[in-house]
Amino acid sequence: MKAGGDIFNDLFDEFTLWAILVGIFTFSWLFHHSLKYRSKDGSDNNIDNLTPGVFPVENDDLKLEVTWTVVPFILIVYLTFISWGPLDEIWTEDEDAHIVTITASQWSWSFDCSEVNNTDICDSSQTMDVEGRSNVILSLKAGESYTFILYSEDVTHSPFFVDWGIKEDAQPGQETRMYYTPSTDEIGTNLLYCAEYCGDDHGYMTAIIEVHA
To answer: Domain with 191 in it: what CATH number?
Structure first.
């Protein structure tokens, strides 16, 4: 299983496939008509006797217009439907999950693992220097479920667990949550950063996430 979970990566692959197919069809249509219906030097460009501001009703094609509207609509509804799947991965809480509080402020993260008695399962007491800045390390255990409770002390932030492919806004005066179970394939060190612009040092608002066996 790739980092982020199969359900996220399969969804990304399907969206990419449809984007390629739609792009091939659209640009093929565009180039075909651009070449087939281009005017030639010295020819009358107004071969259909069009009048500016007057729609040529005789050129209307209801079947084409309906098809051009209905087919993309069906595709959009389908893509929306399959996008609901990963929501269960982010918004469904495991009753036995460990509680980790994430507090955001300009421009740093703080983690609270005090509700977890075992530091082998959750530890936020270590730091690491990255490019001259001290980054908090959140150490988690693979195979354990976590509920991340998010708070903001000032403006809107958005913790983005890069390798997991999940994020959620942290709003001032509001509690939001994320749920995740790191897999053994995700053992290692990865990055958390803020995905919502929050001021001058937004680009340096990072933290280290460690997943161990």
So the answer is: 2.60.40.420
